[in-house]
Input
Amino acid sequence: MVVIEKIKNMSIYNRAITFVVVMSILVVLAFLHVFSIKRELYSLSTQREVAVSLIQLSQDTVYYSELVVRDRKNAKQELEKVKNLYDKQIKILKNGGELVQVVYNSSIKPAPEEIKNTIFKLESKWNGLSENLNILITLETFKQGSEMATGSIDKYGIYSEKDVFKPLNSEVKRSINSIEKTLDEFIDLHRDIMQYYDNQIAIVLFWKNIVYLFYVFLMMLFLALFFLFFKVKVHVVFNKLTEFVSAISKGNTNKSLELGGNDELGLCVKTLNQHVNNLNEVVSFIGQIGEGNLDFEYAPRSDNDILGKSLLLMKETMQQKSEQEIKRKREDELRNWSTMGIAKFGELLRKNNDNLDELAYSLLSNIIEYVNANLGGVFILEEENNGDKYFRLAASFAYDRRKYLKKRIEWGEGLIGRSALENKTIHLSELPPDYIRISSGIGNTLPTSIIICPLRNNEVIFGLLEIASFNKFEKYQIDFIEHISDSIGATIATVKINVKTAALLKESTEQAERLAQQEEEMRQNMEEMQATQEEFTLKNKEMDGILSAIDNSSGTYELDAEGFFIKANENYLEYTGFEKTQITKLNFKTIVVENFRNETDIEFFWNKLLNGLSFSKNFSYTIN
Output
């Protein structure tokens, strides 16, 4: 049905082209099929000729064996040539290869599987005959002192000692008798192989005739169907077209003609339908504009469509007035959004001003939620005793594990360091592929936009704010983040001073207490160190025993930070069916993925492991 529908939609010209193409394809397929059958016939015929040559060589073997026992000149040399040629021919018939006789100048394929068993039997028989032939070739035919021929092989292949004048060597005589016993079965195997190839050639010839008839029938059927379909299609279209033109001439524009085709007649009908639809669309357009639907689309039919251009001019005028009103409302909404945000974060800065990390996380999570972002981090500027400056990750939101592990960024390092060095905001909408990724329900995805803003007070940097999002940051969001960044910078400066003052006060108090306790602690430490050393030695022995018992009774394994196996004991390999060479290439998270609802659950579980949390969970493994 699909093919018929496609033919209906074709033009008359394309139908004719399709007919020619399909007929050409059928002819080519027929030729290729016949060529393939011809190649198969050639291959079978060539293999059959090799089988015929084996029969001839087997007969030559018997003939030259008789000449050997008759003590004919060069009989042994000829027998050896025939034997070697038979060895090569039977291997070529079984395994394929280049033909060795001069009458052939090509190669053959290996024998089919269904005949290989017979060839194996023939080869086995030949190996026995070959050993006996080697005895005839290599050993002295007659006993010492003999001068005349000793016997002959009759027409039935039976060795006869009539008219014996020279006694045969005992080994030669045994070989002659062995050849006689296996000769009939050896010839029968040759006949079986010849019968197989004759049958195969007959089968191929039969299918060759079937293929000829099939393609002829297919071509005739396609030709008949094509002309029948073409005649019916043209006749029906002309009748409908006549009725439709008659209705239009009488002023009936509510009627349309559906032909369902894209040929020349169908295009003519579509043009008439379009002419009628133009007037109906104008009426509909005016009705929609009158109801206030300014998004209703209408396109002039040509550059000379005066009515259509006038209607569009009316629509554009009304749209401009509507857009101005929408823009004014949007500006009011953004202004209110910014004002409310500044008030909200001002309150947060006043509430949390004694703990810098808690303050950073509270501000970060609220900023990400307020600007509809997905990921962020607050970096606080720290200074070491030698004067080196670096940024410490004080708070993060939705960082993946790899990014989260890097809690220290040097001054001037990466985008964070560059923003601090230049003391200005960095906004990027095209990020490096390996910069940062957001883990979510839709996978591990590269964010669309990122903004890095300095946290400063009186042009002095106290930290940096980094926020990333799947969505592009709008200008009003960037302006808002920069505005509250200055407030955050001032609060961080105040908190740092308060924290430093509190730390100095606490340090002076604790120093006095430490001096008083130092002497007592030193005495106690010496006693505790001795007791601890003894206890530690005992616990080490206990732990070694426990670990050894666990390793001998349970399946244990070690994983690296990415989830790849480092090693596993024999029990675990036996339970799971993994190979020892295979286990280090596997990822634990991949083989237990079916135990979690989604990727977020897997990352949550893995982060708990990395943070050293202890818990239990049963897993079922997926083993490929």
Remarks:
- The two ends are 42 Å apart (CA to CA).
- Residues 146-150, 400-404, 439-443 have pLDDT under 50 and may be disordered.
- The first helix runs from residue 2 to 8.
